[in-house]
Design a protein that fits this description.
The chain is an alpha+beta fold. It is built from nine helices and 21 strands. The structure holds adenosine-5'-diphosphate and magnesium ion (MG).
Amino acid sequence: MASIKFKNVIKSFDDGKVTVIPDLSFEIKDKEFVVLVGPSGCGKSTTLRMIAGLEDVSGGELYIDDKKVNNIAPKDRDIAMVFQSYALYPHMSVYKNMAFALKLRKMPKKEIDEKVRWAASILNIEPYLDRRPGALSGGQRQRVALGRAMVRNPKVFLLDEPLSNLDAKLRTEMRSQITMLHKRLQTTFVYVTHDQTEAMTMADRIAVMDKGVIRQYDTPQKLYSEPADMFVAGFIGSPRMNFIDCTVIRKGKIFYVEFSGEMMRIPSAKAKNLASYENRRVILGIRPEHITEHTGGEIAEENCVITAKAEIAEMTGGEVNVYFDVGSRRCIARIRTDRKIASGETVRLLFDCNTAHFFDKDTSKAIGTV
Ligand SMILES: Nc1ncnc2c1ncn2[C@@H]1O[C@H](COP(=O)(O)OP(=O)(O)O)[C@@H](O)[C@H]1O
Ligand SMILES: [Mg+2]
């Protein structure tokens, strides 16, 4: 059982000269799998290390299970941390690495043995118990590091970019292993990564961080479909969302956005939020996967077709990434097609207005959710 609560937490370094977390408030529920995601240097590891007690909190309050832990030593927090670097003892066998913390706690040998074998069997590392870490692959080492955390039965698992040292295929495999582990252990997991795909595939909830601030804290689905601002919209999703400068125009009762001579109707559900932007510039956001190729036939009212030159067309098997320009903005469409689209070819691209997002140019906040 463990919930975690940040209440106006501040973190500064160098005697308060550098503030990396200005004011952080959020809660992680018991048994939740929460991912902190954001670009390098945004404060993810610092946040995690404060939970672990490896960094002091400079201001505010941090609670674990409603108990204020600002002044509680790491060893008394009942938390286990797994690092990118594995941090295994190189001169000890896998077995001893996993048993070490329990031995320090003077747990009876038989009980230690049961725990180590239980963790090893879940993680499929039983055949390597006698080996030293140096004789294991990266993925096996990372599983040992997970096992070493598991045997301690911690209330909270903290994982800091645990898969970053693994190759792409192994990363995908380990992703699902960690998700399964979470389901099986039924404990709170806080997982740090700069990789939005990891965040999207693993998390119950994701906190998107930027410069020490949580921009949005929500389910993967919500972050994708209702990003709160352009930072989140651009960070979640790959290839990233296209942003196009446009002007809001009204014709009778119907609102449109105009860009590069094209008109796109604003769906009525969104039009009421955009009414106050009439004749002003806003940013239209459209995801590459929401642009399709128009191959003829009537164009529905809620769609908009633009003619563009495919500056670059990349085949990815079943899909083609088409790079095209709208004004001076380079955009990308991810088109599902078997047709070979050539670079330089003129294409007709269909934007589905219902999937469009609109952002305030000054604040970069999503219009309608402000
Ligand atoms: N011990 C420290 N002293 C001074 N600055 C630090 C220290 N640790 C981290 N920082 C700074 O805090 C910011 C956040 O770092 P970090 O939490 O490691 O980011 P992330 O894990 O998101 O990449 C960075 O600008 C980093 O340089
Ligand atoms: Mg980090």
